[in-house]
């Protein structure tokens, strides 16, 4: 019998795995659910599992991979990214790593624009003012026209490309920086490829879609943020640590930029994060991925990847250990 360990996480639906693996795998598959959420809890779950399905809050380190035992065949990440999973250690141990890269492309792209426009149009400022009994347009000043702005996209993967498509009707100039995507791919969507510094020098607003890797951690630092202007909005739907939190707080406090729209933070859930509740920040709880359809697709895809490994097939969500972006 194959044994599968599922994280007891709200995104993960055990019944989907039971149904799919029962139908797709010829031998019996046992599903076990455990409250993970940390490396220690993953190690405490024991050995003898052929597959582990983890959430974004459960780091899978080299120590954890060793502790899980020789039976382990696949680590399935129920997420787009694999930050927190030691892909190299898994590869060395003969364990495949999978992810679900495009289950929420439309949702995250839409959410990024929701945050952008909420900040641009001072939506929460107006809402607070009306709740306090004020009824005046001046509370949201200054607001600038979107069609006369330049919007920069940091990273140009599937989510950023979808956002570019959605933005195409607003008349803004679009720029993007991504060292792994050539300019021709960007040109197809009316986006100009620029260097990192130029993205911040030329953009009125910047939306961050970058995954968390050693090269992107802290990439958006004090220097980058200082290149923006007092009417600028910074959005992050990638990973929290891509932006230097202290640097972002500084430019908000000093008025160097107008606002920040954040779906991801340096620590999740946050513990006394000064960005939470800040007058110039709109923060959502890493919910950009969510729709009922996206949750269903996430579970079906991750379960299919586990089944593929059990059937000695190449899973659709296989992570290439030699990928440049890791």
Task: Briefly say what this structure is.
Belongs to the D-isomer specific 2-hydroxyacid dehydrogenase family. It comes from Halorubrum glutamatedens. About 35% of the residues lie in helices and about 15% in strands.
How would you describe the overall organization of this protein?
By secondary structure, this protein is an alpha/beta fold. The chain has two domains: 2-103 and 291-310, Rossmann fold (3-Layer(aba) Sandwich), CATH 3.40.50.720; 105-283, Rossmann fold (3-Layer(aba) Sandwich). It is 34% helix and 16% strand. The chain contains twelve helices and twelve strands. The protein has helices at 14-24, 39-44, 62-68, 87-92, 105-120, 123-131, 158-167, 183-187, 196-202, 222-226, 245-254, 292-310, and strands spanning 2-7, 29-34, 51-54, 74-77, 96-98, 150-154, 173-177, 191-193, 205-208, 233-236, 259-262, 281-283. The protein has a seven-stranded parallel β-sheet, with helices on both faces. Strands 2-1-3-4-5 form a five-stranded parallel β-sheet. β6 (150-154), α7 (158-167) and β7 (173-177) form a beta-alpha-beta unit. α1 runs parallel beside α12 and α5 (105-120) crosses α7 (158-167). The radius of gyration is 21 Å and the shape is elongated. It starts with a strand and ends in a 16-residue tail after the last helix. The mean pLDDT is 96. It comes from Halorubrum glutamatedens. GO terms for molecular function: oxidoreductase activity. This is C-terminal binding protein. Residues 28-319 form the D-isomer specific 2-hydroxyacid dehydrogenase catalytic domain. It holds the Pfam family 2-Hacid_dh.
